[in-house]
Amino acid sequence: MRIRRLLLYAMLALLLAACARQLPAGTMEYSTAFERGIPVGQALPGTDIKYIGKTEQGAQMTIGGQQALKRTLDSLTWQGQVAPGVSIDYNLRVITFDSQSLQAGGTAKVVVSDVKPQAVPATALPKDVPTFKGVVTYKVPKGKAIPGTTITFDEKTPDGAKLGGLDGYPLRKTADSIAWTGQLADKVYLELDLRLVAFSEDAMQVTGTATLYLKP
Question: pTM to 2 decimals?
Answer without folding.
Answer: 0.80
